[in-house]
Amino acid sequence: MLNKHAIWLPGQGSQRVGMGKSLSERYAVVSATMEEASEALGMRLDNLMYEGPMTELTRTENAQPAILALGVAMYRVYSREWGHVPTMAAGHSLGEITALTCAGAITFPDALRLVRRRGELMQAAAAAETGAMAAVNGLSPELVSQICVETSACDVDGSRIVVVSNMNSDQQTVISGHKEAVHEAAERLAAHGAAVIPLQVSAPFHSPLMAPAAAQFAEVLSGISFGAMRFPVVSCLTGQPYGKADELACMLARGLTEPVNWPAVLAYQKSIGVTEAVELGPGNVLKRLAPTEGLRVFAFDDKEDEAYLAAASMQPDAYSIELLHRCLAIATCVRNRNWNAAEYEQGVTTPYRGVQQLVDRLRDTGEQIEEAHVRQALAMLESVFRTKGASVEEQERRLARLQGEFGLPSWLGVPPAERPYAGSLL
Asked: When you count CB atoms within 10 A of the terminal residue's CB, does the N or C end of the chain come out lower?
């Protein structure tokens, strides 16, 4: 069984031809997700992912929706087929939008169109700037940042900027900026013993040079309606969970110009006692960035890890009769706002009496409590909520507490309209 765990969503660069093809052949939900993505974008995204060519798939405006679509498809298998529910989610750069989509803050069609436009703006910025990026291995982010500041200090006309764009781990940093400044910083870093690898990218991402793209992206984000999150999403800029939905647009726009701070995400995760993570997306780049001690990471795209995740059902070994008693107690405590006697009899009294009789029978016979019994009790609760006129907030609060207390799978402990099988989860 998975313990308290996070889901991680990777960023651009993890795409490859063939991504998701075998999954779509094995899971109907993946195939359906790809159809939904193609319809939302008005193009056969799945054909591009499965067949390439790589030059077309790597284009920023194609790579971003492809990575997001596969991440969402994997999340749907993870949650719908296997019944897992995360304690938190986090994404690396682009992956943060995927994480927010999985959490319900952005609808899947909106997210696809959003990241495609994000990619187009980033590609346009690439054409307007002579920029570069390089990975720096073997030095601390603090030393790399210091050398970037020293290099940029020589600038007199704003044409020699270099900054830290990604803090991936204690020993891996990425720098970004004007080509000449990145080259000079790379020489200085190499003199300190770093291994510096130029990256084959089209623009200086996560740097001040992306400000024009960020401003345009902010306008695009202003047209998105953000919803409530079903689980916390931790910002890869701050290492802290998002609060209100009105923070999202500002933070996502800032993400084009400010550095990714993945160690801060890991530090927050550790602070809340999360010791496992599941990477959902192509490849295993985030798994490879994880510390080797104190954290277990599974990559869906790894066959052995996938098999483990499929077997590690969140269903408890045995349900307790106390769970059924608790459902009856909740039904009694919900305030009634419906005084139609016939509706009350049908929606409250009859299903309540059915569960009460079930509990009496199980107690008398000593039968094992099965999933069907739990489903009956939860169906009774849903009927009581609906008939008594309970608010959505009250329903979510009571069901979340019940789910947490008894370790229920996510697909057993949420209202019908939000269940994965209802088709509205994402």
From this structure: N
